[in-house]
Write a structure and sequence with these properties.
With about 230 residues, the protein is an alpha/beta fold. The chain is built from seven helices and 14 strands. Helix 5 crosses helix 7.
């Protein structure tokens, strides 16, 4: 008999920017974490109630408004603990007094589900990805066949190059990515598929990556993203 998976990940596509908001449900305790609460808090609450879970944690991949604009409203309903990287809180200028500011390599436990926090700068200085048992929630760091912008305040294309190289080598090929936006034909993908078809994963030299990210990509590609041959 195959054991029941200890957690489930539910994606809600909400708002005008095709954001994915995620609900991580720990089956053993019926606790849940919301990743990047934004746009439609009643829809998030309805999803939690449908699964009969209590939202006890909020995980923030980064602090851009389209990923956090539902945070205050959600916290009026749930006494949830906020988790974000200290470097992002410093960049944002908020929540610096949280007792659970994190560093890359920390682990958050939602019930019995362990979630590894990866520091993945590039889109913002304190961007984070959340890794749990064959899944990685990538925010605006890695999209299906795309990656986050680096031309906004705090963006750094050199750091994004190094971040994507690390993700591509440190995660197993069958790891499922869950991005922060629905910018492709499929909502999820695998690391193996991204190494083959994501143009941002093809570069071996940082200068070539920076030129493509900052000067070329947005002129030649449109949403929905499709695979690109190396």
């Amino acid at each position: 008999m195959i054991a029941e998976k200890p957690f489930s990940i539910t994606a809600l596509e909400l708002g005008p920017m095709e954001n994915f908001i995620y609900l991580i449900h720990d089956h053993a305790t019926n606790r849940a974490a919301v990743v990047d609460p934004a746009w439609d808090v009643p829809a998030i609450i309805a999803a939690a109630e449908a699964q009969d879970v209590q939202i006890t944690d909020v995980l923030l991949t980064h602090s851009h408004i389209d990923h956090i604009n539902g945070l205050t409203e959600l916290l009026k309903v749930y006494d949830a603990q906020i988790h974000l990287l200290k470097s992002e809180a410093q960049f944002w200028g908020k929540y610096l007094d949280l007792p659970t500011l994190h560093h890359g390599g920390d682990v958050v436990k939602v019930g019995k589900t362990e979630i590894d926090i990866w520091h993945t700068p590039g889109h913002t200085p304190g961007s984070a990805c959340f890794h749990l048992a064959g899944n990685v929630l990538t925010g605006d760091t890695l999209f299906v066949f795309g990656c986050g912008r680096c031309d906004l305040k705090g963006g750094n294309p050199e750091e994004m190059f190094n971040t994507l190289k690390h993700i591509g080598t440190a995660l197993s090929a069958d790891t499922i990515i869950h991005p922060g936006h629905n910018y492709a034909q499929n909502p999820t993908s695998t690391i193996a598929e991204q190494l083959v078809g994501n143009p941002f994963m093809h570069f071996d030299r940082v200068n070539d990556f920076v030129d493509y990210r900052m000067n070329i990509h947005d002129k030649i590609r449109d949403i929905p993203y499709e695979a690109v041959r190396r």
